[in-house]
Amino acid sequence: xxxxxxxxxxxxxxxxxxxxxxxxxxxxxxxxxxxxxxxxxxxxxxxxxxxxxxxxxxxxxxxxxxxxxxxxxxxxxxxxxxxxxxxxxxxxxxxxxxxxxxxxxxxxxxxxxxxxxxxxxxxxxxxxxxxxxxxxxxxxxxxxxxxx
Length: 148
Known about the structure:
Blueprint: E1 3-7, E2 10-14, E3 20-24, E4 28-35, E5 45-51, E6 56-60, H1 63-76, E7 91-96, H2 115-123, H3 134-147
Antiparallel strand pairs: 1-2, 2-3, 4-5, 4-7, 5-6
């Protein structure tokens, strides 16, 4: 089971396999969410935290991640509520900063046109090769320039 908590203004996530990461809240540039077409039977909804250096931290959107969003809401003084939980197609949106709320976090991946595209995608399940949207890139650059 994954564990998520905020302590001393740091987000700490420990995954069930023992790997973990820690990030100071002050280093968060973006918080967003995205959904994929991989469910059911596989995680298909994720919370994504991106730091000021552009490093991406994805968390499967389970109950613990929902609690983490609640704690981040308090720490950041904003309301963070996922909107894509029941989405069954690829979609993404920025939740924080509020000035960009609802803007796409990622560029939509190309449609799987051929049968072979679909087969290749099946074997790459869980590999999310997503490119940040222009809006998300600009927000990260803005956070970097204002923190220097």
